Amino acid sequence: MQHRQDIQIMRGVAVLLVVLFHLNTPGLASGFLGVDVFFVISGFLMALLYQRGRVMDFYRRRAARLLPAYFFVVASTILASAWLTLPTEHAQVVEQGLFSAAFSSNIGFWNQNSYFSKAEFNPLLHLWSLGVEIQFYLLVPLLAWLHARSRFALPVLFVGSLLGCLALVAVSPKTAFFLMPFRIWQFLLGAAVAHHLTAQGAVRSPHPILGFSILVAVIALVTLFPVNGQLNDPLLGHPGGAAIMVTVATGVILTCGLPERFQRSIVGEALQRLGNWSYSIYLVHFPVIVLCLYQPFSGTLLSPGSGVQALLVMALIALLATVSYSIFERRVGWMKHTGGAIGGIIVIIALSLISVPINRSQFTEQQRNVFAALEDRDAFRCGELLRFLQQPVLMRFLHDTKLLSCELTENQPTSAPVLLLVGDSHAARARRWPPACR
User: Fold this and answer.
1) Could you say which of 47, 328, 401, 410 has the lowest number of CB atoms within 10 Å?
2) What is the pTM assigned to this prediction?
3) What are the φ/ψ torsions at residue 368 (nearest 5 degrees)?
4) Measured between alpha carbons, how far is 83 from 269 in angstroms, rounded to an integer?
């Protein structure tokens, strides 16, 4: 397909919104909508790049494009975490690394908490979107086959995915947010634009002024429209009304194009440069922010303490994005072979396992015992799994646990006196108490 600078500008705008959002920039509380732009562009490009009958070639090209920088960032984050964080936080990073090796980060974080929760230490949280994209890529050959068999198949899938997404926002926003089936409508809209509204990806009927106006409207939407990602509301929640508006707006810009004069302007060229580097910038920015602002037992911190700290974080993002783009994103050829992808997965798994003793070796035995206390007697705690199993079937699927209590007792002899103790995670079963206390 013809190279389109306007797409790079859209990518530049999207990654800028996401990075500034993750830096808690005032006025950009909805900057996460930039990811929705990426989803539509991905659907648009995959519809043009996939060639029927060349499935493995499609997968190899996708792997060569995405995985070298992806593995570089995951491996670097695991190693940095091993040296910088306490065992309690590093254990979370290891788990995230293992999910990323299986390209299922979105499922791992769905199993944990809302994207908007900062309680856990999640330097690889941003990889949820890569999980969604890679899972979509795996479906591209099937979707192309369905499209060739029936012209109604993909429209039905689009409507079903969109309606399911909106319905779930009212019940379990994190399920609609994280899981690919409820995001596929955004990819399909991009694919529909590529097939029906462009000439093999090139603008068929240019309306650049309209496209520019829509781009400005998207930026205004991100800064002005109140989007609450944890709200059970299909209009104000996410992915809800704002996601629909951004998705449709991105499709319109892809159809209409942007003015040549704007593309050649200083701002346009700067955004194109950002767009060219957007993948590496997106990959490195979140781990840099979270690790640089790390404080023990404080979860995911995203607000720099001063302007100087913010500048240092942004400088480190620029440096590592340059390394990722120059060395891993553009010049690595080994990923064109299937063995390269498998080797990368093995490296991530190995680093995840090896990093644990490296991390723990930095602390004394007494310190390690203190950290172990956080996991002590885990069997006596009311874990999320137990609450999950006690939910009705629908709540199990949504994984949105609501129960406030659970029973941890085993069957006790009826002849022995039993004291019922109700409490939080510090409470223990009565039979563990001294006999005088029974």
Assistant:
1) 410
2) 0.86
3) -65, -35
4) 39
